[in-house]
Amino acid sequence: MGFLHTMVRIRDVDESLRFYCEGLGLKEVRRSDSEAGRFTLIFLAHPDDIAASGLKGDEYPLPEGLPMIEMTHNWDPEDYEGGRNFGHVAYRVADVYALCGHLQSMGYAINRPPRDGYMAFVRSPDGISVELLQRGEKLPPKEPWSSMENTGSW
Question: Which residues are catalytic?
Fold first, then answer.
């Protein structure tokens, strides 16, 4: 068995691409529209994972073992309550402080700051909780993160 992807439902394609691509650094690897089903599927992956997978472009199917987010945009408005859009996704990151600072500068609240130098949570525009875990050892405590309170839920 091989991991394929995690699907999240989104309301706004542009705002979601801004968060996942500009904010987290993922790249779009595939997009398809279903006129009959009235939805768009957009697959995203991190450049390091794309390179490790050997993906060159239009291969079908996408390589097994390429960790991806599948964003599903239903064309007809729909409320996603009761966990219908998802719980959380997690990424190992090179510098949790730098990434949280970058996301904060883009206007995203850091719901659970990396006080411990290891773990943080932020929410996508659709309320998907994204866990950010420091690669390797915990970083030494650093302000403003070490004294920052939680914001909202994560």
Answer: 131
